[in-house]
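Sanity check record (used in CI):
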Amino acid sequence: PYSGPSGDEILKKRSEFLSPSLFHFYKKPLNITDGKMQYLFDEEGRRYLDAFAGIATVCCGHCHPEVIDAIINQTKRLQHSTVVYLNHTIADFAEALASKMPGDLKVVFFTNSGTEANELAMMIARLYTGCNDIISLRNSYHGNAAGTMGATAQSNWKFNIIQAGVHHAQNPDPYRGIFGSDGEKYAKDVQEIIDYGTSGQVAGFISEAIQGVGGVVELAAGYLPAAYKSIKKAGGLCIADEVQSGFARIGSHFWGFESQDVMPDIVTMAKGIGNGIPLGAVITTPEIAEVLTRRSYFNTFGGNPVCTAGGLAVLKVIEKERLQENACVVGSYLKDRLKALQKKHEIIGDVRGRGLMLGVELVSDHQLKTPAKAEVSHVMDQMKEMGVLVGKGGFYGNVFRITPPLCFTKEDSDFFVDVMDLALSKL
Ligand code: PMP
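Expected output for alanine--glyoxylate transaminase:
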């Protein structure tokens, strides 16, 4: 049993000693003390079904024993030295990661976060092309350092600092976008930005395949092939941000970009790659990677033995436990059940996503698509009381984000939907 400080005591310390910009979910914030696979436990030992997984991060399950063993064993042996010496963990993990990539994408740079990975990817694109302009999508989230904050396109996450060199293209959002599900029509905006907003040559394009923070928006079919074509014609590199949609989460494919049948030049990842330990990576081709030999690129903790040993264990668990297949089977079952729920509850405007990356958008008016933000918060609170945790997001904060650990079962899905149903019925 837990014997540490209570939630109230932590809250008091947090308000005194931690960032004043920290926010929390729930009227009475949860004090989470333990995790086990798809469950989290609070200070009183109460169990919650976790359908958020630390923002699509915990892929194998909380404290998965095989991942924990790998981390502990490596920690006992060597926790840190530096990449100027040799160690097998980083090389083994790089090789294993490269084996999951298509084509010539096989050179791995390790970082500690998604922000760092995207910063590095954008720098590589700029160095390789000798151009500065990057195109990203409205409603995207790519990180919170100066460069990636520029690529991020939601005012909620942008501070007033210089964020230069990024253009934001129309978002191919099938629910709210003006062209519905016609991906090719939205992609014309990428060509127009190149034609009217740049010299005609660009450094690159960065996008998620399914926008996570933006409220689980799956890019309209046909968008990425058309956008990539324009970018490649303008000499740019295409960067796939797989921080949320990667690592088997979407079920149908291992990587999000594969669902649109495109071949990026650079792929970035974080979150799921480490099942909760700080780890990120950039993968590109040997030819593109060469640009970093012009100077030194160094990252103290990037690729450290503990995180790379953990990362390798994560990949092994995904394969051994067939988590991609599970995400596909359980995810489509859950989506079907959510679609059925939509028929019952007028307030559900849209159910979307793939595998175990699903979104449910609440609107108070179907025609106007008026965001029902307060209702989302209320339902979340009710669901928590019934033992289920879910995320929220989207520019208007009116979308439930359902991104559970990939070991989620059909029974968990039933429980989740029944609880959501009950909470919606009480609105
Ligand atoms: N890209 C995407 C798609 C993300 O969702 C996030 C984090 N929410 C990031 C990049 C940044 O990752 P990190 O918080 O690890 O810096």
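The first strand starts at residue 32 and ends at 36. If this sentence no longer matches the regenerated tokens, the check is flagged for review.
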